[in-house]
Amino acid sequence: MKKKLVYIAHPFGDQSANLVKAAAVVRDILLNRPEITPIFMPLMYRNSLNDSVRSERERAMVACLNIIERVDELWCFGSEISPGIELEIEWARRLGVPVLYPEGRK
Length: 106
Known about the structure:
The protein contains four helices and four strands, in the order E-H-E-H-H-E-H-E. It has 106 residues and is an alpha/beta fold. Strands 2-1-3-4 form a four-stranded parallel sheet. The longest helix is centred in the first third of the chain and has 17 residues, at 16-32.
């Protein structure tokens, strides 16, 4: 069975509290939703790119948008929609990628 590839949009901003929350979201999906393969890009790039350096942050965003072109859905989590998440949502909608809010927010 092919698993659904889901891009996880969650505030990051190089803040440890957001990282812990996002990691918990990914863990929950991995343990409880076997039909889903979640992708949360900041977990992949946090040790190789500096989020506070604009050019590196922009490079990471380009990579994120590239991944969104390949996923089945984008799921939004967190207490805020950051400018980066707004861009990801806009890009997903432009591509016809469904945008979902599992925590109930719209």
